[in-house]
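Question: I have long wanted to understand how a fold can be written as tokens. Here is the record:
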Amino acid sequence: MPDAERDTPCGLHLFWDEAETSYDFGPGHPMDPTRLALTMRLVEAFGLTSAPGVTLRSAPAAGDSTLRLVHSAAYVEAVRRVAAEPDRPDLRHGLGTDDTWAFPAIHAASALIAGQSVAAAEAVWRGEAAHAVNFAGGLHHAMPDRASGFCVYNDPALAIARLLELGAERVAYVDVDVHHGDGVQQAFWNDPRVLTISLHESPATLFPQTGWATETGGPDAPGSAANLPLPAGTGDAGWLRAFHALVPELLAAFRPQVLVSQHGADTHVEDPLAHLAVSLDAQRAVAESLHDLAHRYADGRWIATGGGGYAVVDVVPRTWTHLVGIAAGRPVDPAALTPEPWRAEVHRLTRQQPPLRMTDGVTPDWRDFHDHGYDPGDRLDQAILAARRAVLPHHGLLP
């Protein structure tokens, strides 16, 4: 998209409910809901909720019939039981495990987050707004019949399932979280209407130990899944090189009617749970690219969610505020100072020192895979070529 168009408001529905912060596993759990509250406060501090074309919305919690678009009735009932008796875990359904702790609001909070993403899908499909964001969402590890990786209900998968129910014939999902988007891939493994693309740290070094390049879809949907596992330690140049070596070509071939994206912030170099070395500025660049790709290949229909991210103060609020600004057509200047009222709120909630600017102070750059060729001795290029060879021929493309 030309630069002049990029700053034009597209129409954004921003979904938020303060009760989403009740998705709280408790003290000591890395998925601290403070990251959500601080993101919303930073979005507000930059005036994005009152920007032209932005509508702030809160949707009802997803009901059982909606949850059953992806999850089994038995699983939904299991979540309800654990909510009523959190001291009695249900390990068969992944509830009360070492990573997905049980808590009284586990069903209500999870269903509320899911409801926002489903409503985001409805708003975009019905033309109420070109873009929709639910940064509290992106809980991509939840499976049809079990919780996994801090995720109870799989809101991106539910949003996609609702789009299909409404009549969408081609939906693309792009996941740039550091962890493989395994739950969304599983939900649509054998459905040719959905293309799932995941860039993530190699399964050899990180949960959930899936997402190899050879995972390309079920027997009725060959090429419907694309995976690019990245070597631990990959930084901005490699991450951006990998993204641009795979995602644009696949979207151009698939021509989705809607683009759904997951923007886990845990690729960042400061994230305590993973091993990539990506900057806030590169995360912002990928959000801009996905915005452009939605306009280029999906008639502008774009639903963006959050995801992982455990650097609660320094990273998550800034990267998701950039995401909201981009989706609103009001991108936040990376050189901007973080507003003083927000810094005070950071100190009040966390007693930590807040970041002073909306940048890590770097200018992301990369060597384009198509222009600069393949280095057979480079582990990143080996991973890129493996992914291209595995999936591109299914779409009639040369690897």
In short: The mean pLDDT is 97. The beta strands are 12-15, 54-57, 131-134, 171-175, 194-201, 225-230, 258-262, 302-305. The CA atoms of residues 142 and 152 lie 5 Å apart.
